[in-house]
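Subject: Predicted fold for Cytochrome c556, 144 residues

User T.R. writes:
Posting the sequence so we have a shared reference for the thread.
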Amino acid sequence: MLKKTLLIALALVCPLTALAATDPITARKEVFKQYKETVGPMGKMVKGDMPYNKDEFAKLATRLDTLAQQPWQHFTPGSDKGKTDAKAEIWSKPAEFKQAVDTHKAEVAKLRQVAATGNLDQIRPQFGAVQKTCKACHDSFRSE
Ligand code: HEC
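User M.O. replies:
I've generated the structure tokens; pasting them so everyone works from the same file.
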């Protein structure tokens, strides 16, 4: 009885953590949501829709570099079924998918370095290069 109560209490306290731990689709979508929140303000600064702040931009670039290590482990076998936009090609063409991941990580790492210089003339094209890797992967491996 006590054990059961404890389990219920646990389930009430951390339903989200439990979900993320058990459901790879939820886990990777959660990371991509953070991607969006990170890339959004960066894009605005690069375009001039928001004042460029060197430290803030560098912080976001570091955060993006951390995020860029995370979604891929959640593309586990069998997680092509369910509420997901992931294409079957992720699992049928693993080498191509890995290539897209590696290219993305490399461009993000470069952006992190360039962001530290505060030189917008270098940041702008490198931000574009990162966005290109998002689009390239979405075009090949995400439906819609
Ligand atoms: C190597 C492949 C790859 C790269 C690179 C990539 N994505 Fe994605 N992204 C995906 C896939 C696959 C999905 C679909 C996930 C699912 O529905 O299970 C996705 C989904 C998303 C989603 C929707 C999440 C949701 O809630 O359904 C957003 C937003 C997103 N990506 C943003 C980005 C941004 C921004 C970048 C670049 C900074 C990026 N992605 C780079 C493969 C990639």
